[in-house]
Automatic annotation (TrEMBL):
Protein name listed in UniProt: Geranylgeranyl diphosphate synthase, type I
Enzyme Commission numbers on file: 2.5.1.1, 2.5.1.10, 2.5.1.29
Pfam families: polyprenyl_synt
Gene name in the database record: idsA2
Enzyme superclass (EC): transferase
Amino acid sequence: MEYVEARRDVIEERLREVVAAVEPTELEDELAHVVLAGGKRVRPTLTLLACEAAGGSVWSSDSESLGPNGQTALDFAVGVELVHNASLVVDDIIDQSALRRGSESAWAAYGHGPAIVASDGLLGEAFALFSADSRALESVSRALVELGEGEAVELVDQPSSESEYMELARRKTGALFRTAAELGAIAADADAATIDALGEYAERVGIAFQIRDDVLDSVADAEDLGKPTGQDDTMDRPSIVRVTGEDPETLTERARMESEAALAALDRVAVEDSEARQYLEDLATFVVDRDR
């Protein structure tokens, strides 16, 4: 796990640097409350792993400093995490959820107005990190369109079939996972086929992640999960549990099918770093087997 922990550590350090540079202090405090309260950092870690898998040099030869592609990959990774957290702030307002990662959600801590400002601030800081590369901007913009359309579908026209749910999961969760991997490949200056294959891998992982999230909402303990459970029923929100009526074990197997499809997409990549590939494979398994 040291391999992954080293990447999470450098992501955490860069997140702190970005947040510390925010003005005014009140906004810095709000962003710190949202971003630095913890989290699995799955998406930014995926960005660094995708960069390495695509042949990018994230680390120098002595592994003590960033390599030629490292700063770009790291900034893209942090940008993805900021976008993700911006979306969580809005999700908590919509869901009226007062808890996030075991702490007060942004709106519960600061009020609705400051929480919305914090979400905007996170997006602004993220796009500043993407701004040097038009391909990065295009990828992230596409993901945000998908995310926005997914949220609108969830609120207005709830899915009534498994196929409709899967499209919603692709938009709400899969799209940002895809972007995380695409950004890593872009930082490595990979070809279009590699960017697309890594993107498909990550999108499938994201869908599996969302399915597992829905299952955990229905069966997990709130204290263990770090956020309220039963929210899908409380908020009359679509989930694969409610849409299909299947039991958790069956749905977990459905998530595993997406994980296996992700690995098939990964097989299309001429992976340059075998260790990065191993952790990408592990991630596809983790999102299905996780308990929180």
